[in-house]
């Protein structure tokens, strides 16, 4: 980089500010512009010094992080990384912050391991600095749901779409909020790996479920995947796999080491879908940092499945889709606004239904 990334740290905890600053300063491309204990102190620094990135605590006195984030996005847009405690309340607020335009969220550390625990903030801050400010998602309520019966895999149509697999990371909350509410109740089962800590995926599933015609839940081990449902991999502890059991597709939560630094891993999900459903699957790789998902999406394409990558212009971070394109894993590159229609079109055309 030509110049250092100037970061403002906003946290009501003096210890928290010190941990974050010490962790970020380990990278020579990052400079701590300043620290603030509340939004009013932070406001003065923002007006005077124009930071490149802000890390913002969710819970603070005088004005909470969400209120301050909304003002930043409206009055002086700057990339913001939310730092949130691993509690139900913290996770709910973090998801709301992402929908307001925060670049990403990072779990708050505590104790003597705090500095090392914040090391993962470094690539997020660097990506935020070069990506600009995330757009607000256009989350829209869907029509009421209706029940849809479970369909077996075979059904006499070898190429029928029986499952849709989606992988995402940074910017994925916005992308999922655009795609899922547009899907009809008759859509094939949707399985999703979104890079997030534990509890965050619980809050994400609950929020998306309120917006969608399809049912959105966290995946549970051993459940049969049903049309009109989307299943999000629980954050932190397991990889989400899909298996074929007695002619139907089942979710499996499997312990394992992180893949490419992630658990759950998009590669793990996509590779399992390639094995379980082959040409009867559609894979979608969305916005995110790194390469997770590229190899798995290639496995899906090589197994005969259809594959989609989100276009660079609609990604918050064009990392994962770029890696998949470079690997030859992407059949179609589509803008975020066109992905839901493509999924519906794939299913209708390949099951013999016409528009």
From TrEMBL:
<feature type="domain" description="CheB-type methylesterase">
    <location>
        <begin position="157"/>
        <end position="345"/>
    </location>
</feature>
<dbReference type="Pfam" id="PF01339">
    <property type="entry name" value="CheB_methylest"/>
</dbReference>
<dbReference type="Pfam" id="PF00072">
    <property type="entry name" value="Response_reg"/>
</dbReference>
<protein>
    <recommendedName>
        <fullName>Protein-glutamate methylesterase/protein-glutamine glutaminase</fullName>
        <ecNumber>3.1.1.61</ecNumber>
        <ecNumber>3.5.1.44</ecNumber>
    </recommendedName>
</protein>
<feature type="domain" description="Response regulatory">
    <location>
        <begin position="6"/>
        <end position="123"/>
    </location>
</feature>
<keyword id="KW-0597">Phosphoprotein</keyword>
<keyword id="KW-0963">Cytoplasm</keyword>
<dbReference type="InterPro" id="IPR011006">
    <property type="entry name" value="CheY-like_superfamily"/>
</dbReference>
<feature type="modified residue" description="4-aspartylphosphate">
    <location>
        <position position="57"/>
    </location>
</feature>
<dbReference type="GO" id="GO:0050568">
    <property type="term" value="F:protein-glutamine glutaminase activity"/>
</dbReference>
<comment type="similarity">
    <text>Belongs to the CheB family.</text>
</comment>
<keyword id="KW-0145">Chemotaxis</keyword>
<dbReference type="InterPro" id="IPR001789">
    <property type="entry name" value="Sig_transdc_resp-reg_receiver"/>
</dbReference>
<dbReference type="InterPro" id="IPR008248">
    <property type="entry name" value="CheB-like"/>
</dbReference>
<dbReference type="GO" id="GO:0000156">
    <property type="term" value="F:phosphorelay response regulator activity"/>
</dbReference>
<keyword id="KW-0378">Hydrolase</keyword>
<feature type="active site">
    <location>
        <position position="195"/>
    </location>
</feature>
<feature type="active site">
    <location>
        <position position="169"/>
    </location>
</feature>
<comment type="function">
    <text>Involved in chemotaxis. Part of a chemotaxis signal transduction system that modulates chemotaxis in response to various stimuli. Catalyzes the demethylation of specific methylglutamate residues introduced into the chemoreceptors (methyl-accepting chemotaxis proteins or MCP) by CheR. Also mediates the irreversible deamidation of specific glutamine residues to glutamic acid.</text>
</comment>
<dbReference type="GO" id="GO:0005737">
    <property type="term" value="C:cytoplasm"/>
</dbReference>
<feature type="active site">
    <location>
        <position position="292"/>
    </location>
</feature>
<dbReference type="GO" id="GO:0006935">
    <property type="term" value="P:chemotaxis"/>
</dbReference>
<dbReference type="InterPro" id="IPR035909">
    <property type="entry name" value="CheB_C"/>
</dbReference>
<dbReference type="InterPro" id="IPR000673">
    <property type="entry name" value="Sig_transdc_resp-reg_Me-estase"/>
</dbReference>
<dbReference type="GO" id="GO:0008984">
    <property type="term" value="F:protein-glutamate methylesterase activity"/>
</dbReference>
